[in-house]
């Protein structure tokens, strides 16, 4: 469903700030794979998602989504294949627009924007049903401005928008990291529910190793711009946090298991 | 200080305010919806008038002349849009470049003259200084300008409710989200700039007819007047304007208030030469208000913030 072939990306090449963010990254996802991604700060996790989404062009390598080579496609053109939820709850929604308007924008992802009405009655009913799944009471606030919602509500709405039309790949960039634990758990549950219901192919970055083990059917660990550990199925289910920590240390000689990882 | 002279001047100020209100609606599209400060309008506020006057002099009827003005404004917006999106020039600078370039273009349009007059006696104009008093109501410039505003607000209300219009609003609200939802934000910005400058040029076409001439300097500082109208409308009527159409109407009302206040300060004896300074200061104060409010509020929090931290 998704294939990354030898992706390389260097930021600020030729300067003191040069940073090899992706360094020969290879990854193949089967249809229905739900991969959790862990790794230290600067390992290239978010960079990988941004490369897939086309936020900037990669230096080398190829990106194929469902067999289509999207390496040269601009961000908005790739959007029709992708659903994205970001770390910052402010990023995924338009604050000055209404909940239903945001959803209507998402429902038209990949379609030509015409002079037809931006939203119609039938859609409103459909959105109401969809919002009920979140269990946040948003179904009664269709015309509320998104800027009035809490971070958790906005993140849940973004998740719904990302999956409103079935994406070929769902990209979740630490989408619960900015939320309080209770809200984070709620959003994670909704994520699981939607991915299972729609049989989505998904990549979820997380800093929480327990979550990384508990969710999805496959887990990858990144370090210095490439994948250093890839495990799936039964083997993944048997993993413990301590196993991952020792893997980290093996890979990086100890410096990897930083404070932020330990806290989780 | 004769009060009747003030009262006599008010209908004219109102008509002027309405025509500039159309211009301010154009500014609203870029400044509020797209979140861009577009300085092209200082140029287009002359281009529209120049095109309109020259077309009228060449024998075209008023509707065609105004359509020509609208089209010329859209081209100016297209130029700024290309500077900004394709060439990556910051929006403010892109607008300044277009504005400077338009100065030469405007002179060319007017046959290398700094101004071109069009007499209301010789031509059948739609609006004029003379159509304020003692004319049938449907010929009255105030009525005509109000009709223009109602039609423009209605059209914009429809447009920004369409799929394309929603995409443009989303682009101004959150460009990252827009791209993630498959919106080409560059196209959105270009369409917004074209629409905005088209409306400004249309207003310019009306204004040239109103004052009876087009002048190469008629757009100088237009952006400040436009912003003043947007801000005054928001400050005075913001509480009552919930939907988009009423917000646009508030902008037009803001322009009328601006011109009425102007008339009053002139009547109070302010030197006409000092007007632009006054306008700039008024707009600066209103733009600063939200920021200063925040600063003041934050100071309060830090003083007594122990319990909150």
Describe the protein.
Chain B: It holds the Pfam family BPD_transp_2. The complex is a heterodimer of chains A (264) and B (309). Chain A contains ten helices and ten strands. Chain A is an alpha/beta fold. Chain A has a single domain, classed as P-loop containing nucleotide triphosphate hydrolases (Rossmann fold, 3-Layer(aba) Sandwich). In chain A, the strands form two sheets. Chain A has a six-stranded mixed β-sheet with strand order 6-7-8-3-9-10, sandwiched between helices. Helix content of chain B is 72%, strand content 2%. In chain B, helix 5 runs antiparallel to helix 10. Chain B is mainly α. The C terminus of chain B is likely disordered. The longest helix of chain B is centred in the N-terminal third of the chain and has 31 residues. Chain B is globular, with a radius of gyration of 20 Å. Chains A and B meet through helix 2 and helix 3 of A and helix 6 and helix 7 of B.
> What is the count of helical runs of chain B?
11
Compute the number of structural domains of chain B. Answer: 1
Major sheet characteristics of chain B: 2 strands, antiparallel
Task: Name the CATH homologous superfamily of chain A.
Answer: P-loop containing nucleotide triphosphate hydrolases
Structural class call of chain A reads alpha/beta
CATH architecture of chain A, please? 3-Layer(aba) Sandwich
What assembly state would you assign to the polypeptide chains in this entry? heterodimer
Q: How many helical elements of chain A?
A: 10
| Large-scale geometry of chain B | globular
> What structural class do helix, strand and pairing data of chain B support?
mainly alpha
The CATH class label of chain A is Alpha Beta
């Amino acid at each position: 469903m998704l294939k990354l072939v030898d992706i390389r990306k260097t930021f600020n090449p030729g300067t003191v700030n040069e940073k090899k963010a992706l360094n020969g990254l290879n990854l193949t996802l089967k249809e229905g794979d739900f991969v959790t991604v862990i790794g230290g700060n600067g390992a290239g996790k978010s960079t990988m998602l941004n490369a897939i989404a086309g936020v900037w062009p990669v230096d080398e390598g190829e990106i194929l989504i469902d067999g289509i080579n999207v390496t040269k496609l601009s961000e908005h053109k790739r959007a029709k294949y992708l659903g994205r939820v970001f770390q910052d709850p402010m990023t995924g929604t338009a604050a000055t627009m209404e909940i239903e308007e945001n959803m209507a924008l998402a429902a038209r992802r990949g379609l030509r924007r015409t002079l037809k009405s931006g939203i119609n009655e039938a859609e409103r009913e459909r959105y109401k049903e969809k919002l009920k799944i979140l269990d946040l009471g948003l179904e009664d606030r269709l015309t509320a401005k998104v800027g009035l919602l809490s971070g958790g509500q906005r993140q849940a709405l973004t998740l719904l928008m990302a999956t409103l039309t079935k994406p070929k790949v769902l990209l979740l960039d630490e989408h619960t990291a900015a939320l309080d634990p209770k809200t984070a758990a709620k959003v994670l549950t909704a994520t699981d529910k939607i991915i299972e219901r729609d049989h989505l192919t998904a990549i979820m970055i997380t800093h929480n190793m327990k979550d990384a083990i508990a969710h999805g059917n496959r887990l990858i660990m990144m370090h210095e711009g490439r994948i250093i550990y890839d495990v799936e199925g039964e083997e993944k289910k048997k993993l413990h946090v301590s196993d991952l920590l020792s893997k980290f240390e093996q890979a990086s000689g100890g410096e990897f298991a930083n404070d932020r990882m330990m806290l989780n | 200080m004769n009060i009747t002279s003030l009262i006599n001047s008010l209908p004219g100020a109102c008509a002027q305010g309405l025509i500039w209100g159309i211009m301010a609606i154009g500014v609203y599209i870029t400044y509020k919806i797209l979140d861009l400060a577009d300085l092209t309008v200082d140029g287009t506020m002359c281009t529209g008038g120049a095109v309109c006057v020259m077309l009228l002099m060449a024998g075209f009827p008023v509707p065609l002349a105004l359509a020509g003005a609208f089209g010329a404004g859209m081209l100016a917006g297209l130029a700024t849009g290309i500077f900004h999106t394709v060439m990556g020039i910051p929006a403010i600078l892109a607008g300044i470049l277009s504005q400077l370039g338009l100065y030469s273009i405007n002179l060319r349009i007017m046959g290398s003259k700094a101004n071109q007059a069009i007499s209301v006696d010789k031509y059948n104009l739609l609006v004029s200084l003379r159509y304020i008093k003692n004319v049938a109501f449907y010929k009255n410039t105030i009525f005509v300008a109000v009709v223009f505003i109602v039609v423009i607000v209605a059209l914009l209300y429809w447009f920004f409710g369409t799929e394309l219009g929603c995409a443009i609003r989303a682009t101004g609200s959150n460009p990252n989200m827009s791209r993630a939802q498959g919106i080409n934000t560059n196209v959105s910005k270009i369409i917004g700039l074209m629409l905005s400058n088209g409306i400004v040029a249309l207003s310019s076409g009306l204004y040239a007819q109103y004052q009876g001439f087009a002048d190469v300097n008629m757009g100088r500082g237009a952006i400040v007047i436009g912003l003043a109208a947007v801000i005054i409308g928001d400050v005075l009527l913001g509480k009552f304007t919930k939907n988009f159409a009423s917000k646009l109407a508030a902008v037009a009302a803001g322009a009328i208030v601006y011109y009425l206040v102007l008339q009053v300060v002139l009547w109070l004896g302010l030197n006409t030469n000092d007007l632009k300074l006054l306008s700039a200061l008024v707009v600066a104060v209103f733009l600063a208000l939200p920021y200063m409010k925040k600063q003041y509020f934050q100071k309060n929090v830090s003083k007594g913030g122990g319990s909150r931290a």
